[in-house]
Amino acid sequence: MARTPDNQNRVTPSPEALSPDGVLATAPTPLRRPAASRPAPSIALSPSPAVSVPATPVPVARRAPIWKEFNGQLAYADASRFVGFGPRPSGSEALDRERAQIAGRLDGAGWQVSTAAFTDQAPDGTPVDFRSLDARFKRGQPAKKRFLLVAHFDTERSKVIRTSGATDGATGPAILLEIARVLAAYPQVASQVELLFLDGNHPFRQNTADDGLFGSRFAVQMLQLHQRSGEIRAVIDLENLGGKDFRLYYSSNSDPDLAETFQRSAGMLSIPLAAANRPVLGDHVPFQHANLPAIALLDAESPYLHTADDNLAQVDPASLAKVGQLVLYVLSEEIFTSGL
User: If you count Cβ atoms within 10 Å of the first and of the last residue's Cβ in the chain, which end, N or C, has fewer?
Assistant: First the structure.
């Protein structure tokens, strides 16, 4: 998790560098440095394949209990594969392998994947390449407004400890992949969801105005650049999650209406959910500062976060299932209740 930066200049990519189906952007975070202090990141966005839309969308029963189809064991298997790559800091070969696996799984489940590639600077001025992944469902009529589910897949870099980031870099994307698998059978719901796998969550040194939350800041700025912020109904950010005997929290600086929705839904599923006792500087923050409703789900009391003990032994399939089922429940209820 990273703290929010002060005002920095908006990135202005060249038209030919942008993906045709809309890309991601980085947004203001609280403490931003002046524009003159560093060059704007360079951007290269991969084109995405054309979306095939059937003439007649597959119907979905109203309020179908899709959350019951989330399989914690399958999510655990994905997290295990990611942990097997070892530490995965931004710019590493290990992260490239994890990214390729995520993209392959999404494509196989019927999701259109595009890459948001950009270059920013480490605190010492070294250029670093980041590549986030964005996924939209290929079938069904694209919705005018959608829910954005985000999770980072990089792990922190440290010369002191070696952490595989099991609950902080592996479980988040694993939960999103299992949600993608479930939603593939429900095009009406899937068409109203966008999945965002963020690179660059962790800082190179420590959380500062220029260090950390690279992917989410870039994602928001692209939304603003293309004037697509209005297409986002809400942002659901998965931070560190899925540990054994964990209790699920939402950050105290989450959107109040979203927090109420999640609390009500958690009560319906008998899943304990509480507000964290402090704000969280996670990937939901840049979206909030772009006036988008956002919530972060996390284990606010994890004893092994940012330690060498954050390994696969700490991950519990049942905990992964609770998170995934809750998110799917909220999506299905919100989408069907709104009539979208």
Answer: C
